[in-house]
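Q&A log
Question type: sequence-to-structure
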Amino acid sequence: MSRNLFNRFSMRLKSMTLGGVMVFAVISSPVAVQAETQVPSSVEKAIQNQLAKVIPGAPTADIAKTPVDGLYQVTVGLGIIYMSADGQFLLNGSMINLKTDENLTKSAMSELRQTAMAKIPVDSMVVYPGKNSDNGKKGRFMTVFTDIDCPYCAKLHNEIPALNEAGVTVRYLAYPRSGVNTKSYNKAVSVWCSDDRTKTMDLAMSKKKIETKSCENPVKGHMMQAQRFGVNGTPNIVLDSGELLPGYVPADELLKIFNNPS
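Response status: OK
Response body:
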């Protein structure tokens, strides 16, 4: 398979984190996408073999039953697709339970993001603890992929005091969109290498000069995580529920989402 086709399919998997173009609706009892019944080994083999043909060298997928007979949820990294038992048919989109109005794909994606985010060390982030959060160790939180030179990132940064006052901890991961060894990248490194990350981030976000520093830092690792999460712009907000909000959202709207999760 050509490299271009590989890239197109990989991009398709990434796009699933933001919602597919096809809606696959199901009328069923209110059950989760993953069923308890074990997937037959013949189905596992057929789907894995087909994926190996489409994406040579791809990691082994997690395969689970869905409420629809003969249709299986296939998870590759942080991407979800649906495939037939023989691996010959693929659906890219959202599965919705029409009885409960639950988007089963969205729920499954949120769980994947929660699990993936929990594996990123908090001490690698710039953390603004919410009120009564025990320095960010308890209570509600959101994690933001941010770019210091992004105007909307700076706008969101100005909302942190209101979020903190409401008890929401804000955690930053670095995603300088211009790439490695650029001005934005070097600013991020300087923030993460500073003695006081939050103070230096405040200065950088307000366009004030910060001391240039270099050290062993997590910035490149954060950029790789951004790719895993399907981030293609900044800011990108991942709530503690696992929900992904692509773009700037004002504090009052964020608090409404926290207080009234979908």
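Response note: Residues 33 and 66 are 5 Å apart (CA to CA).
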